Each structure stands twice: as C-alpha cells, then as structure tokens.
Amino acid sequence: MIQKQVIYLLVLIIIGNTITVDTTVHCDCSELRSQDCQFSKYCYWNDNYCQSYPNKCAIFTTQSQCTPSLTNYLCKWDDNSCVSHLYKCDEFSSNSDCPCYWNLDNECAEFKGCSSYDENNCPASQGCVYKISECQAEDYIDCSDQTLATCSGKQGMFSACAVNNDNECDSYSLFSECSDLNNFKTKCVEFGCKFENNECQKIECEDLSIENCTSVNIDTETKMLCVVQQQKCVEAQNTNHLNIDSCYMSTNGNYKWIGSCVQCESLVYSILLTYISLFLVVYL
Fold first, then answer.
1. What pLDDT, on the 0 to 100 scale, is given for residue 271?
2. Per-position b or e across 101-112, b if 16+ CB within 10 A of its CB
3. Fewest CB atoms less than 10 Å from the CB: which of 6, 136, 139, 189?
4. Rounded CA gap, 78 and 57, in Å?
5. According to the UniProt entry, where is the signal peptide (predicted)?
C-alpha cells in the first residue's frame, strides 16, 4: 500500500487561513475509530480495530455486487470472493456488457474506425457521427469561417465553436478550465464557473447558498472547506463546525473524529476506480 505521511503540502494545504483537503487520499484505516471506519468505503471494523480490505475489490461481498459494470470493470467474482481482474475487450460477448466498442461483426473490441459500427453503437467519443445511413467520421469546421448564425459544431475532437465576447465565432476547448473561458461569457457559466470583472473565475464559498455551503473545488484533486457564519457562506478557517457525523465525510477522509475533528497522521492513496477503468479495458 502506497502511503502518504501527513505533510502539509500533501495532506492538508493551508493557504492563509483557509483549509483545503486532498481528495486523492484518505486516512489510514488503523487510525479510525468505529464511527469513521463505518463511513469509509476503504475500511472495515473487525475485532475492535479498523482494518483495510486485503484488496480493493473485497469491499464487494456478494456476487451480485461484484459484476464488471458495477465495479467499473476492475473486479471479478471468483472462488466465492470478489478479486481484482484486468479485463480485456474480447472477454465480453454481448453489447450490453461491452465496455469497449461493439462493432458490426458483433464483437466487443477496440475501436476500428467509424465505418465499423451501426447507428446504435456509433462512438461519438472517437469523433464519429451517424448520418446518411452510416457511421462516419465527423466533419469538423473552421470556427473562423462561420457566421454568428452558424457558429456551432466542432472544430476538432476536443474543441468546439461558440460566439465569444467580441461577437465573433471562435473555438474553445471542451476541457477548458474557468480561466480558459475569459472570452466566452456564456460558456463560462455553462462550465460551472462565474463571470465577474470581465473574467471567468472559479466558484468561491461566498457564491454558495447557505443550504449548499460545504466546499468548493480548487482543482480536480483539491477542495476548500466552507462554513456558514453570520448568515453567509465563507471560507472555513478550522474544522470546528464539523461533528462526529460530518468530520470524516466532509473532509474526504482526510480528517478523523476523536472528540474533535483533527487531521489524520497518515494518509493512503485512494484507488479511484472510475479514473482508471477505461484505460484498463480499452488499451489492454
């Protein structure tokens, strides 16, 4: 098990008086008391101790839970237990189970080109579109050649066209961060950001309602804690607002409850099945 020692740069980043937590790690199971242990999907309570599962698939305890689709194609039921398994595309014999691409030969396989698929299986993720009765490569356009009335569609697999703040048709990345959309006010809001002072900015605690005042994302791996004070949502300066029921979960498992909500001394990397499942099934 790969382990992160609790160092402020890796476990809990303190920026000024604000608190951010690392969403890619969680407390080592051995540190947790019963309450937090039961909250954790990585640990289980056994003989008055919190222990980690011998393997990540062991969290699925029945055959009905340990299916390829429910475990993001990382686990398999074998010999009355759920174990890790690296699936390959050709292990699947039906369209409904296939995590890769179901082609005209009724095979689950790696991508072969747009013409290899019917209307129901034409993969947009590979730049394909079904038109004129066949699956074919999408026709990309040059955004700069479009008028305001025709400013839509894609310029490439990962870019599209939209009217910018200068009232011109321009391209933007489909994977843009907030700061990448300064010239696209409408898209800024669509991407879950806010447009303020002529800039596309990340949502901050003060932008949240009291009902939703929990945390905001700093980046894909980090979030900042928020708290309600004087009927306003503000950045949390400590964890005093968290209790035995909210401490562990609200900090993404970075903190534990021992009468107060404190940072864990040792963290381990979380196995995020969702992020790696596509790599395993498509490229192996």
1. 62
2. bbbeeebbbebe
3. 139
4. 11
5. 1-20
Which of residues 6 and 108 earns the better pLDDT score?
108
- pLDDT tens figures, 225-258: 999 999 999 999 999 999 999 999 999 999 999 9
Note whether 254 and 26 are within 8 A (CB).
yes
Instruction: Decide if pLDDT at 3 tops 90.
Output: no
Q: Is pLDDT above 50 for 2?
A: no
Confidence of residue 273 (pLDDT cuts 50, 70, 90): very low
pLDDT confidence bin for 220, thresholds 50/70/90: confident
Q: Work out the average pLDDT over 62-87.
A: 92
Contacting residues for 157 by C-beta, under 8 A, at least 6 apart: 127, 138, 140
pLDDT at position 1: 40
CA distances (Å), 3 to each of 57, 96, 275, in order?
19, 38, 19
Q: Where are the domains of the chain?
A: 145-201
